[in-house]
Amino acid sequence: MLKGKMAEALNKQINEEFFSAYLYLSMSGYFESIGLKGFANWMMVQYKEEVDHGMKFYNYLLSQGADIKLLPIAEPPHTWDSPLNAYEETLKHEQHITKCINDIVDLAEELKDRATFNFLQWYVDEQIEEEENDREIIDKLKLVGDNKSGLFMLDKDLSARIYKPLATNEEV
Ligand code: OFO
């Protein structure tokens, strides 16, 4: 059984994950609008993964007999100055999510909530990968600079990203 403070923090994190989903869906639309379908695909996969991250918290709350209290999702930005700017904002956002996860880990320690502490380790690892992926794309975008054919090659690379569901219900 979760303490009230922890249930509140996890419900808030569902909101953070769904805002992330919304942000990346908006970015996917932005990339479509500037003709970069590979980037749009990468962001669409990211959107789906964030929904999975939110659902993983949702299912965990239910498994602990806690109430689900969904909060309003804020409006994301609709446009960015450039692909580089969009990925820099993505990295900034993921650094914010890493801080949110770390704060909940601290809370689990404070409350001696071992089950939630263990559950959160998946997110701790996931955040390393999330930030690393963003940094990699930022580096490539910086290398490409104003070179249009470089940008189209990168777009082709990103079109290969495939969504893999977090799998079965017990894992999500
Ligand atoms: Fe992009 O990260 Fe969720 O948790």
List the helices and strands and how they pair.
Blueprint: H1 4-33, H2 37-63, H3 83-110, H4 114-144, H5 148-158
Helix pairs in contact: 1-2, 1-3, 2-5, 3-4
Average pLDDT, rounded to a whole number, is 96
Helices and strands, in N-to-C order? Answer: HHHHH
Low-confidence stretches: none
Looking at CATH, which topology would you report? Ferritin
What does the radius of gyration come to?
Answer: 17 Å
- Dominant shape: elongated
Strand tally? 0
Q: What count of structural domains?
A: 1
Cα separation of the termini: 19 Å
Output the CATH class name. Mainly Alpha
* Secondary structure category: mainly alpha
Which short descriptors sum up this protein?
binds hydroxy diiron-OXO moiety; mainly alpha; elongated; 172 residues; Ferritin
Structure in words:
The radius of gyration is 17 Å and the shape is elongated. The longest helix is centred in the last third of the chain and has 31 residues, at 114-144. Helix 1 (4-33) runs antiparallel to helix 2 (37-63). It is 74% helix and 0% strand. It has one domain: Ferritin, core subunit, four-helix bundle (Ferritin, Up-down Bundle). It has five helices and no strands. It is mainly alpha-helical and 172 residues long. The protein binds hydroxy diiron-OXO moiety (OFO). Hydroxy diiron-OXO moiety (OFO) binds at residues 17, 20, 50, 53, 94, 97, 123, 126, 130. The site of hydroxy diiron-OXO moiety has 9 residues, from helix 1, helix 2, helix 3 and helix 4.
